[in-house]
Amino acid sequence: MTQQTAAHVPDEHTRIDLSGKRAIVTGGTRGIGLAIVRRLARAGATVVAAARKEAGPLPEAATYIAADLATAGGVADLAARALDRLGGVDIIVNNAAATAPHLGGVLDIPDEDWLRNLEINFMAGVRLNAALLPHMYGQASGAIVHLSSGVTQSPPPTMLHYAASKAAVATYARGLATEAGPRGVRVNVVTPGNTATPGADEIREALAALGTASAEAGTTFIPMGRIGQPEDVAEAVVFLVSEAAPWITGSELVVDGGQLNVA
């Protein structure tokens, strides 16, 4: 039986200071996104949390903007409203994601699901960056983090549409980092492993109900002895957007309790 240990939650003495920074987090009202919003706010940033539905509760330093990130118009509207709300932008966290497993395998995935995964998981970030990078370039500073996924390391056929869209994120971020670096903007990727979030829990339960995998199977080969928590991923994101990581760009930080090393 896998030993379960609690996630580390940093206390007030964790010295990452984002005072005065303005941040946008997509998919920021639940799961990993909500944890990132809360951690950014605790570090002193003012945050816009964007998502289709409001959840929360959000910290006092964060506000919610409803956004349809599956369309170009929805992303453009978010960018305009966020800039108006914040007065500028220093941090972008492209976290929004959506998918559903297709238990019949690759040939069971219809075109519309391939395209929907690309629109939300990949193009939403591309479009938001395109709208906001001119402001970052103008101030010669900024930090962008994209959230990928551990499924890209060993993509299951039932989730290949999701894995492919998330793999595209990592390739795009490396290329963008090359262009943005000389202009003062850093671009990195955080790749979470098996993490307890509402969306991931739903997928695990669906697979377990059909006997594809047990709900606990993902923890079997995690050296750290537990499934990840959203706060684990949030710590990595906040580190990468802070002055603690001034010479890190074009990198992918895997946050998976060591699972990739033994997979």
Task: Please explain how this structure is put together.
- The chain contains seven helices and seven strands.
- It has 263 residues and is of the alpha/beta class.
- The chain has one domain: NAD(P)-binding Rossmann-like Domain (Rossmann fold, 3-Layer(aba) Sandwich).
- Strands 3-2-1-4-5-6-7 form a seven-stranded parallel β-sheet, with helices on both faces.
- Strand 1, helix 1 and strand 2 form a beta-alpha-beta unit.
- Helix 1 crosses helix 6 (230-241) and helix 2 packs parallel to helix 3 (111-139).
- Residues 1-5 have low confidence and may be disordered.
- Pfam families: adh_short_C2.
- Residues 21-193 form the Ketoreductase domain.
- Keywords: Oxidoreductase.
- Belongs to the short-chain dehydrogenases/reductases (SDR) family.
- GO terms for molecular function: oxidoreductase activity, acting on the CH-OH group of donors, NAD or NADP as acceptor.
Task: Please describe the topology of this protein.
Blueprint: E1 22-26, H1 31-42, E2 46-51, E3 62-66, H2 72-86, E4 91-94, H3 111-139, E5 142-147, H4 160-180, E6 185-192, H5 198-209, H6 230-241, E7 252-255, H7 259-262
Parallel strand pairs: 1-2, 1-4, 2-3, 4-5, 5-6, 6-7
Helix pairs in contact: 1-6, 2-3, 3-4
